[in-house]
Amino acid sequence: MTVEPARSAPSLSVPAPRATAEPPAAPAPPAFAPPGGRAAWLAWSIGVSVYFLAVIHRTSLGVAGLDAADRFGIGASALSTFSILQVLVYAAMQVPVGLLVDRFGPRRVLLLGVLLLSTGQLAFAFSSSFGPALASRAVLGCGDAMTFISVLRIAARWFPAARNPFVAQLTGLAGMGGNLVTTVVLAQVLHSEGWTPTFAAIALLGVAVFALVAFFLKDTPPQEAGAAAGVPRPRPRIGRQVLDCWREPGTRLGLWIHFTTQFPANAFGLLWGLPYLVEAQGMSRAGAGGLLTLLVLANMTCGFVFGRLLSASARARMPIVLTVVTATALGWALVLAWPGGHPPTWLLVGIILVMGSNGPASLVGLDYARARNPVERLGTASGIVNMGGFIGTMIALLGIGVLLDALSPADAGTYSATAFRWAFCWQYVPLAVGTAMILRLRRKVSA
What is the pTM of this model? Predict the structure, then answer.
């Protein structure tokens, strides 16, 4: 036992910890740089196959809107309810899905998503009345909500950070490939085979995709999974996880970017594009389908270009967003202000090309959230951001549907060009609100 000297300075030794002190935190697993390469592209390809299928399910009503109105005997407001409910469920599920991805990993969430997608679409195929069909679209929206965030989480684990903006744009591009299948293939099959065989066939595609994910997809690279195998995985409280994401200004900026840039093309492609082109502009279904196909091709092209720009420099983010918002607002102003409500074909093609940039620009919002949140809460942050565009879409779908019914006679079987013109002006309400919030939060993030 050591005897302390009689005349000593005050002791600076640290007292022994009390018995009530919290135990030390579990050691963090060693950090590994994501490998990239062929293994990463294989993991991403398997995950994105689910997203590809989900977009086919999501956009299937866009080419079947007129058929659905005849099948269920409903008007514009009730027809818009299908897409509104689907989008509402999708938006409401984003934060819960993000938490599930952060806690259980993307593979399990994708498997559940495929089951819900197939169940909802199969029920929709055999529905003959409005109520059951509406419920089936809600189930479909729930499954759809589980796909995109999961694929982003796979990319964040398998690819280096510098590649993530480009991979995110490729993910969106793959989704547009699903949209292309809808506009080119599904529209023709629906016309030739009928309602039930078409939608039942889409539902059964989920069997193959489910098997692909179940047997071949890994959440993380082998070296990261092996290093973390013996280390307890921290599970933060749900409320704290969401609050930490929301307090980050980059997350909120990402949400408003997604809100403002995505909804015009979404509302047009999901529901109102085909009725507008056929009923208001007098185009044939084949001609309208061609323009919707052009929308998808423009989206894919812009996604590739934006991905390259964002990978080269993060400074391209805000210029891309503001350019797309401005071009969309000016393009629709020209279309809606054209005398007689019947703009020439070249102008319709122009607004389609402009809206092709909407989806890729919305992914910039996810890039802001990814850059300003740690990877362990990336799913939650992505979920918050991804709500934005679908909330905007829901507002646009509902507003256009209500205005179309209000501006048309009760016994009208179709909607006039004038009704569509005034109803589409509703887009400027969410566009103005979203732009104001982007400019406000842009200064806060820069500071």
Answer: 0.74
- 10 has pLDDT over 60: no
Contact by Cβ (8 Å): 102, 378: yes
**Amino acid found at 324:** V
Q: How many CA atoms lie within 13 A of 122 on its CB side?
A: 12
Residue 400 tokens read as 């256009």
Q: What percent of the chain has pLDDT over 90?
A: 39
The tally of domains found in the chain comes to 1
From 152, 186, 387, select the one nearest 269 (Cα to Cα): 186
Tokens of 287: 């001609």
Q: Judging by beta carbons within 10 Å of its beta carbon (0-12, 13-18, 19+), is residue 239 exposed, middle or buried?
A: exposed
182 by DSSP, 3-state: which?
A: helix
Distance between CA atoms of residues 153 and 272, nearest Å: 32
Residue 219 to residue 202: CA distance in whole angstroms: 26
CATH code, domain carrying 283: 1.20.1250.20
Give a yes or no: residue 18 inside a domain. Answer: no
